[in-house]
Task: structure prediction
Amino acid sequence: MSQLLYLFCQLLIILPGLINTSWYPIYNVSTDHIFYQHFIDSTLARKLTDPINHALGDVKAHAFQWVSVTGFRESLGNNMSIAWIALGGSVPNRQANLTSMTKDAVAVVACTLSAQKNSPVGFNLDDCYPIEVSRVSTSDHRAGLLGMSLRSLELRSTRSGSALVYCDPLWRDDMKHPGGGCRIRLRQDGRWTETATGEPSSFYSFCNSVDRSNPCGGGFSVDLLEVSVNQNGRFPETKLLVGLPFSQPFGEAQLINNALRGFQGLTEGGKQSVDILSSEEVNFGTQVVWTPPQKEAFRSGNNNTVTASEEANSVQSTREYLALVSAPSGNAGSSITAYRHNGFRASDVVFRIRPKTSDMTTFSGFGQALETLWVPLFKNESRVDYAVVVGAPFSYHSVKGPNTGRVYIVCPDLGRIEQEITAPPLDGPQSHSFFGYSLARLGDVDGDGIDDIAIGAPGMREDSHQNSVNGRVYVHRVTSECKLAPVALQ
Result:
């Protein structure tokens, strides 16, 4: 459920006929001639901007522009739950010469959704609440990219618990040099929980020492992982993976262990440590993501719930969590590297994915977007039970033209370090589609037990003299052979 809400919020598009039945979809209307359909809550703008206006003390938030979104579900007991969506973005400063970096304020706002039979999309947008709202100034720590990266994690080993992390890669410890910073908020038992010291969030800053920051873009990308139940505390062992692509000389990623420790007493929860993943590839850390969590069961085609191992003829699945880091550095140098974390400052390279040299006639942005999907093993195979999906939104197509975009998929074979991309890639529909600019795991949309993928194509034009065009999102199935279906579901 939350995965589909995630897609809705990202592009305000609902895919008719593909929504879980608990959301009461319109199922008796033909969509044969409809590529996509917008369903925008008429109260969205007001409900989203009101809490920002209240926090700012004026009405400047009417132009709030969000750039990131995530969603999670909160259990209320008695088999009841609500869905949350969180959006990060900014309010442009209309009194200055406008550029993409001219901001008046930045904000992260969270809204609740509830099921509603009479709604065209099966749910209503309820209320929105400010997570953090602040003005942008050159005289303090804040900058204009708060919420650029935003992730949520439903904690499976605790009742009614979810974590929300959002970052500002331009946060400045010394008011001058943007080292970046991330905050973690914890939602539990129907409220936002404070840290052990009474703060609303745990804060992590990067690339600073002795009151001086170094520009490294900490928080340019981020991901959370629940590892196991923490026997010494109230919360599970959770790892935070952060990309710092502008750290000198090549970029890096940081792995923060026990990321929820700040919400526990000082004597609880064990120690916290930070490990650094480094490479000699330029822009390393542009995107970071964990391999997907284990799925205990899924629904088969005959609507019988069976375990994945039963459906896969008792084939043992790989249950090793790896940190994946992208480096879209150049023609042949772009790569995705997977790391196994073995302990304090000990990580091994498990595998690496590179594009074929023949595919890289120009800079393609291979690794500009990165996602992982669960693809169970249905027979004895040497591959893992997940797929790595890579976006290359600037790919050139010999017929369609520049910036067509391309998306690759790989189910790694752990018997080798250098992985081969064997599955055919997907190309964008036309030039300047930027197909693969964003990727989102949707969960199992079509009920075949395999995660499906949403692929964003912003559709920016070649120059400012051409008419603007709406971006599109494509939903593609993933087959049991670890291939992207050539025709989109929607």
Summary: Residues 1-129 form one domain. The longest strand covers residues 65-77. The longest helix spans residues 44-56.
